[in-house]
Amino acid sequence: MTSNRPLIWIFLLPTLVVLIPALLLGGAATMVIKNKMNQNHSSQSADMAALQQAANYTHSLGELHRDVVDMLQQADRGELSQLASYRLHSKFVNELANLADQIQTLTETPLMIDLNHGSAQQLLLAFESYRRFIIMAGDIATVDPSRARHYLDEAQQEFLSFSVLTGQLSSKLSQRSAERSDGAYQATIGHSSTLMVFGGALLMLMLVAAFYSARILNRHLLVIADGLLTLSHPHRELPELPRVQQLAELGQGQLRQLALAVLRLRESEALRLVAERKAHQLAHFDVLTELPNWRMMSEHLAHSLLLCQRNGQHGALIYLDLDLFQQINDSYGHRTGDRLLHEVAQRLRVFQQEGCIPGRLGGDEFLLVVDSLPKQQERAANRVEELADRIRLAVAEPYSIDGIQHYLSASQGVAMFDGTGDVETLFKLADAACHRAKLAGRDAIRFHDDAIQAVMEARNETKRDLRHALQRGEFRLVYQLQFDADRRPRSAEALVRWQHPRRGLVSPAQFIPLAEESGLIVPLGDWVLEQACRQLVAWQQQVNTAHMSLAVNVSARQFQQADFIERVEQTLAATGANPSLLKLELTESSVIDDIETAIERMQRLRALGIKFALDDFGTGYSSLQYLKRLPLDQIKIDQSFINDLLDSPDDMAIVRTVIAMGVSLQLEVVAEGVETAQQLDWLVEEGCHVFQGYYFCKPLPVDQLELSLTPTAAS
Fold this sequence. Notes:
Elements: H1 5-77, H2 82-107, H3 110-115, H4 117-143, H5 152-231, H6 242-250, H7 253-284, H8 294-311, E1 314-322, H9 325-332, H10 334-349, E2 356-362, E3 365-373, H11 377-396, E4 399-401, E5 404-406, E6 410-417, H12 423-439, E7 445-447, H13 451-472, E8 475-484, E9 489-500, E10 504-506, H14 508-518, H15 521-539, E11 549-553, H16 556-559, H17 564-575, E12 582-586, H18 588-592, H19 595-606, E13 611-617, H20 624-627, E14 634-637, H21 639-643, H22 649-664, E15 668-672, H23 677-686, E16 690-692, H24 702-708, H25 711-714
Parallel strand pairs: 6-7, 9-11, 11-12, 12-13, 13-14, 14-15, 15-16
Antiparallel strand pairs: 1-3, 1-6, 2-3, 4-5, 8-9, 8-16, 9-10
């Protein structure tokens, strides 16, 4: 028996804990019901007293009215002496006062208040009217008995009206008393039922809890043991251990301490796993886009190389570079740029379903590793090209950031592999192919070949030399004359040339894109502008060139500098050049990205007297919507339309349209690249104003150009 006592107490103690609250709850419920019934009895007794009071008041009023009628009849017959009349009148006044007190008491009863305060006020007013009438009738009957019979009918009418009112009120009081009694009874029944149901449910819940408490206590040690066993196994995600958590919150004594120790062990293990995952995330994934970074992509690419070598299949590395992304950062801020990069990453993730692993290299550059391509190289290349084209279209879909539509394009370079080579070599090949795509006009896809390596080396060498060319004074300006329809020189365009000490004359097509890419185009443009202004000052001192204006090309990056206007003003002030003879040539890309700022800058410079020309017109957007708003003086038809002018109906239609557009907007139209007399005659006939090209002269150094303008040379 001794060994079983702990089990007996496990069941006995919860039972006692249940029975004692149950007895207390039953006693409390009995007291609540008893008090409620006493309140109902008191309320019903008060209502009955109010009804009895109303009945007594009605009876007393009837007797009083009967005595008043008898007095008036006796007074009318002359049977009532003056002394008796005074006594009856005094009696009526006292009885009316008593009735007034009864009515006042009745209106203050809970039943009357519960009925309607308006009814009580109406009863008081009606009685007061009846009271005044009875007192007045008694006074008149005492003073002049002969007139008493005149008040009999009115007394009957007043009594009848008041009796109807009191009858209706008594009926309402009776009905309301019955409703209050029935409501109190139903409330008592409801309270009793609620207490019984609640008490029974609580009692059953306690009994069930007591029944299972012993079993739960016996399982606590097993819960702790299971928790320790679970934590002893390696996990990527730790289990929650809800049973141990519950024991730590609800348990007591040593069992609770053991449960808390298990939970602390789990918490320390969870912190270790979180630290490991965070370190892995930072080491292998990009923070902004959550795509794999270069380190992780290198591992993917190495695995793909090994897989292709084993299976004899092909793979590909796609190097994706967003075009002109820096302009969005400069115009709308890095916050918008970051959101665009995140959205691009989301679109690239879609292609994971096609065996394509996307990653971010940094900035606006992404990498994609494509696995398990066909063994045939041609088929593999076709599949990669198809995939890259769909990626290009996905990136080109519009982006909505803060209610503004943005458009992006991507240049992609593809390096194929079949298991040979290494990660670094493939990366360089894909980068070189991407550069080819940008040189091809952006938004393009290019595959790498062996010849690109030599081109890349030459390009890098040119970029290195370009950084020192301006300091060493290796740049030169040449000038190409512009003629009117009568073939008279009227202006010139300043063109920059690079005289390399070893490579000789370097074509602008080679070094201008590199200068724009590296940012050197800004100091180079400032140097060209300063030299052109100095040349204008020199020409103003000569008779043959004093009338000449000079056009200077301004790159988009140079024009978009915040202090561009101040630098132009400083150059004019330092050189003393006449602003009215200076013309700045802008491309459409210089103004289209932020047209409002471009217009404001052009108007400020135009206020100084500087003129503006839109260069390479027809190769970009060529939209009338912004063309009519820009403060331009000239538009220049790109020479690509002039080259095949007489052989291409499409080029002929485009040039004719541009000339008509310029004439309608009152702008001078300049044709570049005029090389034959037939081209000149056709352009003159169509109404073109100014001409430039090898038909007249090629770009010349300033001394040769001035020599060609002498009267002897002109003749």
